[in-house]
Amino acid sequence: MTALLRYQSGLLLRSQRWPAPLLLYAVFIGVGVQAAEPVLDALGFAAAALLPVTAWTVRICLTQEPPAARNVVAAAAGRNRAHLAALLTGTAWPVLPGTAAVLIVTAVSDRRGIAAPAAAATGLLAALACALTGAAVGALASRPFLKAPGWSLAALVLGSLLAFVTTGSPAKHAMTVLTAGARAGTAVPPWAALAGALLLAAGAAFLACRATARLE
After folding, report:
1. Which DSSP state fits 189?
2. In degrees to the nearest 10, what's the CA dihedral of 56, 60, 63, 68?
3. Which tens digit of pLDDT belongs to each residue from 112-123?
4. Residue 80: its pLDDT value, please?
5. pLDDT tens-place string over residues 89-111
6. What is the DSSP string of 50-87?
7. Looking only at Cα atoms, what is the longest distance across the chain?
8. Is 38 helix (H, G, I), strand (E, B) or coil?
9. CA–CA dist 16, 43 (Å, integer)
10. How many CA atoms lie within 13 A of 140 on its CB side?
11. Phi/psi of residue 124, each to 5°?
12. Is the pLDDT of residue 71 over 80?
């Protein structure tokens, strides 16, 4: 699996497709987060912006290989493992700028009596919950379920929006926890949201890998 992850990461970094979601995230943070605003509100925005960015990056990783190269990798390592490596790569890379954003936002925002480590830990957990939810959206809105680019992108946008408004969504729960914490002036780590996001992402990855073995 390590070799597959290096392979997928190399493809992503050499491509001309990864700057777009990174730039989108930078624009979200630059426009939506203001210095000296309440830290939990700012962290909630930084975490929420990570969801569509992760979904987009996952889709990039799932579609970046030419069919011939994908078949060679599948023959050598197994189609399930190859697909899982692409999913993991697309999920892991957005977490890096997300972590940096959480740390920067914590440093420049108004903490109002909330300790910096507590705020940062809360923001990181919320960011992970949103990233994993976005990974699930990306896994279900791309191959092998949707191969046509137009339908795939439409499902990606719709899925990202639904993740913020659907009852039971880990991302929505994480935002609710941060909003309640901001009103109470207390940083409450969204552990339940992170656990739900892990289950959701694992379930989506399982379905995607099984479908890949059957449909491709």
Report:
1. -
2. -170
3. 888 999 999 999
4. 87
5. 999 999 999 999 999 999 998 88
6. HHHHHHHHHHHHHH-S-HHHHHHHHHHH-HHHHHHHHH
7. 57
8. strand
9. 29
10. 19
11. -65, -40
12. no
Cis previous bond, 144, omega within 30: yes
Question: What are the boundaries of each domain within the chain?
Answer: 2-215
Backbone angles phi, psi at 38, to 5 degrees: -55, 135
Query: Can you say how many angstroms the Cα of residue 129 is from the centroid of all Cα atoms in its chain?
Result: 8
Give yes or no for a contact between 76 and 148, defined as CB atoms under 8 angstroms apart.
no
- Two tokens, residue 197: 């996001």
Pseudo-torsion of CA 86, 156, 40, 98, nearest 10°?
Answer: 30
Instruction: Answer yes or no: pTM beyond 0.85.
Output: yes
How many Cα atoms occupy the beta-carbon half-sphere of 84 within 13 Å? 16
* Residues 6 or more apart in contact with residue 116 via CB below 8 angstroms: 106, 107
| Tokens encoding 204 | 């989506």
Q: What is the DSSP letter of 208?
A: H
- DSSP-based three-state secondary structure for 110: strand
Distance CA 177, CA 126 (A): 9
Phi/psi of residue 110, nearest 5 degrees: -85, 110
Contacts of 6 (CB under 8 A, 6+ apart): none
